[in-house]
Design goal:
This protein has one domain: Alpha-Beta Barrel (TIM Barrel). 43% of the residues lie in helices and 11% in strands. Strand 3, helix 6 and strand 4 form a beta-alpha-beta unit. It is globular and about 60 Å long. The two termini are 27 Å apart. The N terminus is likely disordered. InterPro entries: Metal_Hydrolase, Pept_M19.
């Protein structure tokens, strides 16, 4: 994450961000306390069930909103065979939270992208409202924990694509007020191959001020590194595995994995055959590698269910997480590291975003910059 730096605009007093801490306080960075919850003599699957009961999965990417948009009727409470995700399978898989993707097909661009993203946000809220016994809308770490403690799955809106902003910081603020909590820095002129433009840097600062989390999946190395230099909050990669094991363009090389971990970020490994391989063992290989390179605090899970992609054997829907955790336990993962993987690391990133936002909001007014001002 960035060192302290001055703001871009004269509307912000020189040096007013210099009081921001260079690092998060211990209570923000520290993982949740871990107490062993299972008997080591149990089978790996029974141990996995016990760990997940206390530390459920925070799923980094669900395509459910777009999938439901095309169904004439659905009921997630009783079960829905037309999708990979419903409430019975979320409960069976011990999913405690999921990020509901607002990404759009590539053909939806410009003003259409802004409106379509708002429709997706509205759909997410509608789905949650229609299933109050199983789902609850959440916007931060505390609300996610409250939902889990009440037996509901926390649904956090996002990520959305950068095209949803329409190159407007005002639209970013409006989407945040509507509930958006994650934005992917790809697909915009200000976040391309060379990296962030001056306007792109201002987008990152405004995201920090609002508490919108940065998603760098699919971003160029230049965008990665400039984001690390500018942002004071940790970033996610919601759908990235290890390129050293599988040369998919969305997977991360080891140098970026190491930089992401060092910056307090989180690589959320997708459960897709294309990115991680055809078996549960292949996914576990990626998790082993990311943990080794980025650290135990730098790895998470991303089901990527209902995105139209094929999934590895034994991981075909949202109920299958215990099988993956059992494989990790067979490999010698400590239960404390599993708890970070499934729940603790996402909670840390959510807390970091909220801490940064509180600090920024006392020192920085909403930005009035435009892309024409900075990149024109």
């Amino acid at each position: 994450m960035a060192d302290l730096q001055d703001d871009l605009h004269p509307s912000t007093e020189a040096g007013e961000l210099d009081d921001l801490p260079a690092s998060f306080p211990a209570e923000v960075l520290a993982p949740e306390p871990y107490t062993p919850v299972s008997d080591p003599d149990d089978t790996p699957l029974r141990r996995a069930q016990a760990v997940l009961a206390a530390h459920p999965v925070a799923d980094g990417y669900s395509g459910l909103p777009w999938a439901l948009k095309h169904l004439p009727w659905y009921d997630l409470e009783i079960g829905e065979s037309a999708v990979d995700t419903d409430i019975p399978r979320l409960r069976e898989g011990h999913v405690g939270a999921l990020f509901a993707s607002l990404h759009l097909p590539d053909a939806v661009t410009g003003d259409r992208a802004v409106g379509a993203t708002m429709e997706q946000l509205d759909l997410v809220k509608t789905v949650v409202r229609e299933h109050p016994e199983g789902l609850r809308l959440a916007h931060d770490a505390g609300e996610a924990i409250d939902a889990r403690n009440c037996g509901r799955v926390a649904v956090l809106p996002g990520p959305a694509g950068a095209a949803a902003l329409g190159d407007s910081l005002g639209i970013l603020r409006s989407l945040h007020l509507l509930g958006l909590r994650v934005l992917t820095l790809t697909g915009a002129s200000w976040a391309g191959g060379p990296g962030l433009t001056r306007f792109g840097e201002e987008v990152v600062r405004e995201m920090n001020r609002l508490g919108v989390i940065i998603d760098l999946s699919g971003a160029s190395p230049g965008t990665f590194r400039r984001t690390f230099a500018v942002s004071k909050a940790p970033a996610l990669c919601t759908r990235s595995a290890a390129r050293a094991l599988r040369p998919h363009p969305a997977n991360l090389p080891d140098d970026l994995l190491a930089e992401l971990g060092a910056a307090g970020g989180l690589c959320m490994v997708p459960l897709t055959a294309e990115q991680t391989g055809p078996t549960v063992r292949d996914v576990a290989d990626h998790l082993d590698h990311v943990r080794e390179v980025a650290g135990a605090g730098g790895v998470g899970l991303s089901g990527t269910y209902d995105t139209g992609t094929a999934h590895p054997q034994e991981l075909g829907d949202a109920s299958c997480y215990p099988r993956l955790v059992a494989e990790l336990l067979r490999r010698g993962w400590e239960e404390a590291d599993v708890a970070l993987l499934t729940w603790g690391n996402v909670q840390r990133v959510l807390r970091g975003a909220a801490f940064t936002a509180r600090a920024f909001q006392t020192r920085r007014q909403p930005s009035t910059a435009s892309i024409a001002d900075l990149d024109g």
